[in-house]
């Protein structure tokens, strides 16, 4: 698939979701980047900002299999992966698959499940496979977890561990709409539900082609060093207890490659890296106790300001 075809696919998806979701083109682009790079997304915001509606709109726009699971404290790992049960008619054990066997999984209020259930997602998010009673089963492609959580309600919740957070490509906040956007929302949903009329604009094969094609986007050694310099500075700042892992630097590279395509280029620039730095890196920072009133995004912004940007002469990619 050509880079222009990938950009056109993003345009179609953005316009289609825009029939339902008002004023969130940037968020939709980030979901597209995650989908193309085989990443997962954590949507964190207060209730009622459209997180679930956004995921449903994405699923309908892509014509992919979609499952939603409401995470609760009594949810068990087997409720996600599935179980072996005895079929009396066939006189043998059979596997009944759980909701993880899908293309798009909405893990609603993921932080309400226990750490045991949260950790059951690690294998499927990283390796696209599930092991049940000693047998490993591959998941269909594409596979993407879109999880939501409420950042202000803590009663009955279990914070996501660092190993879990590191599996998410992006952590995204929806944000409140502006007055004009809120007015559009009221008018749009006053007499009808636009989600019901939404039609697919992309297929699984197109997504698979895009996933194979984006990796050839070029990046110069100077921009690679710039990217690594940003990542390495997260490990030396006094406010940070644990910085970004090599998995995080790879995630930033992949996201910057697709961002370059959306910007109409076949090579990565420092601006692409800057645009992806906060959503990719901020949630991967573990802050020291006295600094936990700060946000990871603020620290990433400070690092970007103090990191020297390669000059134009050093951006050649051959």
Secondary structure elements and pairings:
Blueprint lengths: L2 H15 L7 H12 L4 E4 L6 H12 L3 E5 L6 H5 E6 L4 E6 L6 E5 L6 H5 L2 H6 L1 E4 L2 E4 L5 E6 L12 H4 L4 E3 L6 H10 L15 H10 L7 H13 L6 E3 L3 H17 L7 H12 L4 E2 L8 H11 L12
Parallel strand pairs: 1-8, 1-9, 2-5, 5-8
Antiparallel strand pairs: 3-4, 6-7, 10-11
Helix pairs in contact: 1-2, 2-11, 10-11, 10-12, 11-12, 12-13
Describe the structure.
The chain is an alpha/beta fold. The chain has 2 domains: 3-73 and 102-188 and 201-210, P-loop containing nucleotide triphosphate hydrolases (Rossmann fold, 3-Layer(aba) Sandwich); 217-313, Helicase, Ruva Protein, domain 3 (Orthogonal Bundle). Helix content is 42%, strand content 15%. The chain has 13 helices and 11 strands. The protein has helices at 3-17, 25-36, 51-62, 77-81, 115-119, 122-127, 162-165, 179-188, 204-213, 221-233, 246-262, 270-281, 296-306; strands at 41-44, 66-70, 82-87, 92-97, 104-108, 129-132, 135-138, 144-149, 170-172, 240-242, 286-287. A 5-stranded parallel β-sheet has the order 2-5-8-1-9. A hairpin with a 4-residue loop joins strand 3 and strand 4. Helix 10 (221-233) runs parallel beside helix 12 and helix 12 (270-281) packs antiparallel against helix 13 (296-306). It is globular. It starts with a helix and ends in a 12-residue tail after the last helix.
């Amino acid at each position: 698939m050509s880079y222009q075809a990938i950009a056109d696919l993003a345009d179609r998806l953005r316009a289609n979701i825009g029939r339902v979701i008002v004023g969130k083109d940037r968020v939709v682009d980030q979901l597209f980047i995650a989908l193309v790079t085989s990443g997962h997304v954590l949507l964190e915001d207060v209730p009622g900002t459209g997180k679930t509606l956004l995921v449903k709109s994405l699923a309908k726009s892509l014509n992919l299999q979609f499952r939603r699971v409401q995470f609760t404290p009594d949810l068990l790992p087997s409720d996600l992966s599935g179980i072996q049960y005895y079929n009396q008619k066939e006189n043998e054990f059979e596997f009944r698959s759980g909701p993880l066997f899908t293309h798009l999984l909405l893990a609603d209020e993921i932080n309400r499940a226990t750490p045991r259930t949260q950790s059951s997602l690690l294998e499927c998010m990283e390796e696209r496979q599930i092991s049940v009673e000693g047998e490993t089963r591959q998941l269909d492609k594409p596979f993407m977890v879109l999880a939501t959580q409420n950042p202000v309600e803590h009663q009955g919740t279990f914070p996501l561990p660092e190993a879990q957070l590191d599996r998410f490509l992006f952590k995204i906040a929806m944000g409140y709409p502006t007055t004009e956007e809120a007015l559009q929302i009221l008018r749009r949903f006053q007499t009808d539900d636009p989600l019901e009329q939404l039609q697919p604009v992309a297929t699984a094969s197109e997504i698979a082609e895009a996933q194979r094609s984006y990796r050839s986007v070029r990046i110069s050694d100077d921009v690679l060093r710039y990217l690594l310099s940003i990542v390495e500075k997260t490990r030396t700042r006094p406010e940070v207890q644990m910085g970004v892992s090599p998995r995080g630097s790879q995630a930033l590279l992949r996201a910057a490659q697709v961002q370059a395509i959306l910007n109409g280029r076949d090579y990565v620039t420092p601006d692409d890296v800057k645009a992806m730095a906060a959503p990719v890196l901020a949630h991967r920072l573990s802050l020291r106790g006295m600094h936990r009133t700060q946000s990871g995004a603020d620290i990433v912004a400070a690092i970007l300001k103090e990191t020297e940007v390669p000059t134009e002469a050093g951006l050649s990619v051959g």
